[in-house]
Amino acid sequence: MSALKILVIPGSLRTGSLNMKLAAAAAQELVRAGADVTRISLGDFPLPIYDGDLQSKSGVPKHAVNLKRMIGAHHGVLFVTPEYNSSLPPLLKNAIDWVSRVQDAHETRGQVFRERAFAIAAASAARLGGTRCLAALRLVLAACHATVIPNQLALSFADQAYDDMDRLKHPGDIEALDAMVRQLIDVSQRMM
Ligand SMILES: Cc1cc2nc3c(=O)[nH]c(=O)nc-3n(C[C@H](O)[C@H](O)[C@H](O)COP(=O)(O)O)c2cc1C
After folding, report:
1. Which ranges of the chain does DSSP label H, i.e. alpha helix?
2. Going by CA atoms, what residue is nearest to atom 2 of ligand 1?
3. pTM above 0.70, yes or no
């Protein structure tokens, strides 16, 4: 069996992003659990705000096609996202919207979502840790017919969650990350 490939996608581009730190910690944990991990930045896939007229006129932008193919080259995907006003940030929602419009030859619409496992995590300095964003993201991915694993991580007080080496320092957070990683690997393997 080929190595299990997992793609990690942070939903923030911000310098010092708490979610990029969590994405890095999750990637390390995934590697420790035996996965081949690719961590990307959505900054490398710049996309205009979705506009049906734009799609009709010029087709789906090449960065959306590339992002969709990047997802398609992995067995599982982990989104690590900030919460904006109780929901997901436009950067991530827009990327998902565009990817959901990409249909390569011999594919049905949305096949890239249906054929692999997804996990979701959020980091916030607030007490709820982005829980509401995860509920919204789960709904969006369900609309895309994605399999989203039950285990998720909402990292509360994320500004105090890391040590000097940017590793998670609280046992509860480490356990939650570990449980999510193990389940993502397990479900991704079963969907291979
Ligand atoms: C427009 C906006 C809305 C926000 N809304 C929420 C929110 O609803 N809940 C929350 O916990 N944090 C909220 N925040 C704070 C973000 O969680 C915080 O800025 C976080 O550090 C952003 O993630 P990052 O560090 O990965 O960039 C909001 C921030 C912005 C800019």
Report:
1. 18-32, 52-58, 62-72, 90-99, 111-114, 131-143, 171-191
2. 84
3. yes
